[in-house]
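From the shared-data thread, chain only:
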Amino acid sequence: MLIGRPFHGWRVAWAGFWVLFIVYGLQFSYGTFEGAISADTGWSTNWLQLAYALYILSYSAVSVWSGQLTDRIGPRQVIAVGALLLAAGYLVLSSAPSLMLVFIGLAVIAPLGMSSSWVPANATVVRWFTARRGLATGIVGSGGSAGGIVAPPIAAWLVSQFGWRTAIAAMAVVGGVFMAATAMLFVRDPESIGQYPDGRTPDPADRPLARSRVVSRPAGFVVEATRSSAPDAENPRTAWTASAAWRTSVFWRIFGMFALTFVVVFVPFAHGVQYARSLGFSLQWASGVISSVGVGGLVGRIVTGPLSDRIDRRRAVALALAVETLSFVGIAVADNLVLLYASAIAFGLSYGGSVAVFPALVADYFGRTHAGAIVGRFFATAGSCAAIGPYVAQLLLNATGGYGWTFTMAAVANACALGLAFTLPRPGLLPKR
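Structure, as tokens:
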């Protein structure tokens, strides 16, 4: 390690926190803007909800390329450009005179910027940590929950004072500038500045070399031709490429786990208030459901990440999925605010915990070298399912007249994900690359 230089990994983790604070603060404020947009313009909320669903689908799908770009050119450039695109998309939305421009701004331009946040930030932070990887990804992920708690009330105040167009424009400009500035703190990996994962000092026998070079071998297998700059429990002389990981059964088991849980993950956000209203509660009390999810999510990310460093990470994921299953059961049968709020907090805890541990779990199995491309593939495929759930929930509501089937099926989906979690082998049992 370079003498006198503090370990930069924690700066990377907190930079990731602020990037996710900004992007998810904007995302979760959309519900605040939507009513004002519809009331002012007369545009149908169905069209506005469709634009939002396409936004989620698009940024999830594009994340496969943002992950690859993070591996190739580094996170700093990817996140900085993403900040400009995200701000541009919301500025188009704020000035849109027609629904066509709403779709262009929200469903085309903004997703390009949003895709340059979650995957690049998490793929970078897992390169900086091994022993404390769960804590680091927990810090990054908690930024999204914090943004979801803080930003919507600010958005509501701005809308009430200045109107929705000025509110969106102001949040887009401030968020974009701050995100671009934060991007400057990102460094691809510790070795590039003469440091080592977790800030540890290597054994003197492990002398760092100026640069590692990579040579290709058949079936997507790569070997670092020069000696690794630091000892690493992940066997740093070998690495999984995205295409090689894609061909393993473990990849598809993890994919199945997160596809099943992601497909219902936005249902409480999109329908929680309406569900509480259908139970007879006022709008003020019903809005507390989303706040409860946000508080639970923040705690879940902070607690589950470091917990997964101490226990088997598979157990941490399984615990989160078990709690998420029970939380949906609680929501489905709730007939009072106490049970509804408690179930919403439990959902936030479990959802926040599983999402925080996800990139660390992937890196445990497939290593640090191609983390961007591999996490990007997961997010692009499994994460795209998140756009489906709220729309299907609306169809079920129309067909059945209630939310019972929606939350029951969400519980079943998470129970299936929990079953897959129990089939995961220990990372050390994967074939050596």
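The longest helix spans residues 9-41.
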